[in-house]
Amino acid sequence: MLLKRVSGTSKDKIVTQTELSKLVLLTNMTFNGLQDEKIQITIERNGGKSISVHPKPVNLRQYILASTYGQNAICAFPTAHYSGHNMSVVLDLTVAGNVELVDSDKIVVELSNLNEDPDIYYEFRGIQSEDGNGDDSDIYIFEPKVIPDYEENFNLNVDKYDVCVIPDLNTIREINFTHALTRQVTKRDPICLRAEHIDFDPVGIVYQNGNVRTSDPNFLQLDTDELININVVKELTAGQNIDVLFRKSVSQAQLGLK
Question: How far apart are CA 74 and CA 147, in angstroms?
Fold first, then answer.
């Protein structure tokens, strides 16, 4: 179902009271055309505590990469179909089933830093799933963290997170993994990390002309499902903090939605 098509403005808000399992983003830009757009999704509850899918606005490009890694590809429509959208991406809100909404609860999508060119559009649609599990599915939560510019050796707790998206910067020397089961530490440099990434998820982006890119060269996508810590070893980068985005799944009952 169409939720809203946004164009010619730097910010907008999409509100729906329909229970959804996925969002679909369609645009006439390619994935490479995304710049510093921000997205924040909140489940607003009538008389209850709101649930932040993103506790603050996050980079749209990073969110898409965290949502699709190891699962969906960033695609495009053929030119002869439905206006030939240059980018089509399905963003899972839940592991399965729909987000549970009661009474006047709402799903709110806030967009900012959008391209204001009136010829550029961001179209959002919603997909419902069957409720075979009674909407008892986990919801995906995305949490941003920052590695400060003054840190050369920084630890990030990744327990309970399954995906991490970190900028691929030449100032990062290595990223070390602490494994949950054995507590062993294994070392990787960025080249090995990208090799593992494209081996695990070889189809990252499919363009309208059929060309395939295995990954976004600007970011590293890490599988952190069986890790408890990642240690980032980097150069001092005055004025350049590193924004990292993590994903985890939390049960709707735990969030108070059941």
Answer: 27
